[in-house]
Predict the 3D structure of the following.
Amino acid sequence: MCGIAGVIYHSLEYYRHLGSDLLSLIEPLESRGPDSCGVGLYGKAEQPSLFKVLLLAEGNIPWQEVKQSLSQLTEVVKFEDIGTGCRAVLRSEDDNCLNFLELRTELARSFPGLHLLSMGQQLEIYKEIGAANHLFGKYNLKGFAGTHGIAHTRMATESVVDTCHSHPFTSAQDLCIVHNGQISNYYKLRFALERQGVIFETNNDSEAIAHYLRYQLVQGKSLEAALNSLLNDFDGTYTFLVATSDKVGLVRDKFAAKPAVIYESAEIVAIASEYRCLLNLSEFDSQATIREPDAGEVNIWRAKTATCNSNY
Amino acid sequence: MQQQLLEKIVLDCTSLSTREINQRLKALASEGVSSHVELLNPNGRHNLAVGIEYPINIRFTGPVGYYCGGLSDGPNITVSGSCGWSVGENLMSGEIVVHGNASANAAASAHGGKVCILGNAGPRAGISLKGGALIVTGNIGYGSAFMMQQGCLIVCGDAGANLADSIYDGEIYVGGNVSSLGADAKFEPLSSADWQRLEQELSPLSLAPQTYNFKKIVCAEQLYNFKAKDWSKWKDAY
């Protein structure tokens, strides 16, 4: 058992609720698994050619050397300390010169114990072992404003409990997933993806979903086509959420083994593993549509992109 | 002094833990109170009214979570709202009526009594049903009546794929479309006794069985004994 939750706002006035809504959705789900908590938040987009980068350290990391090392790759616009990690903004005029997977490999090679948690114009991932409330307090996420986000609370079944093995998993700029379930053909999928050059960072089966989707999207497939081919290629039990810069997708396996409840009103779409969480939404409306996805159902919601000039 | 009989006992779930609620319900049930017990603000909480072993009338004024009324023997439970997974799981006797939708595993493994969903039920409705009746006025989801062993499942709407997979015994009636049948399940014509049974079960819900195109599904009994020549059937039945 794990808990997953997501929220998408259609109306600007709710953007400032993103952090607090996600916390109120995910916190009750700790009863499904208290091992770790994580969120993928889509805030205001940086200016074109700027990227937010979240770094996390295990042990002592010489941050000035990290900054220097990054400066050799690209221009470092901002570099701020956030507890056990660091949040940086990098400039990359050409998309090709900064690539998530390459940057992650590069940093891990130069600084063992340093992890690239996320990279994107909007996406920021925060995760750690322990309670949701602690995570949100530590990084001051309750006031985080944004257009959409996903969250996870974990009951580890197949791999170790540490920050790297926590959800969300990411594999590209502005792409992340949270998953509840087990992928039973994980080793085959991992082998196939590794033959395509993908480097896995963890032994968590959920990481395969993120890499698979990136691979499909890079081939030019739409998110919908990628999710439909995933339904064919992935065996096992899964209900997962995937978020990109402008979309959130929900996929339920063809046995409908893992739960999800969808709440849809004119202003907000929220998804949670259990109904009771939805009651905690600050704008809960009992007249809104509440339903469960069917077996093998793919849902995709479009999220707005808040530009750096949006006021909220 | 003559004890005043209350018409209704009201408990607010907000101020009570789940254990306190169930202990109160068990105590009231074992005392044999004839009053209705009304539970306010269940707010989708799990494990409510679980293990109630005596007759008692319970009403939840809102949606409940997982396992509502599970492991019970004799209570009469009404839910004014939807319910989560496994409502009436392992029910021995009594009746649970849900005025809303049910999530997965409605009446899972129930040995007796009746579970009535006045709405849709999710995947695996009536899984491993061992007796009693599950009535769903809407649709049921994927893999319903999986490994059903006894009892009766009546669905007025449509049934999802793989209905009655690996069924041992019992009767299933579907008023709408059946997406597909699972291994060792077959359609059978309805007898007049079947229509009578449908009439008996549905008329209290103000539903007329004749207005639906009911189909009956039972066990084909092809997998009761292993025969080497049936290898492919066994292989396909997982």
Summary: The helical segments of chain B are 18-31, 192-202, 231-236. Chain B has a mean pLDDT of 94. The interface with chain A takes residues 43-46, 63, 65-66, 82, 84-85, 101, 103-104, 122-124, 141-143, 160-161 of chain B (CB under 8 Å).
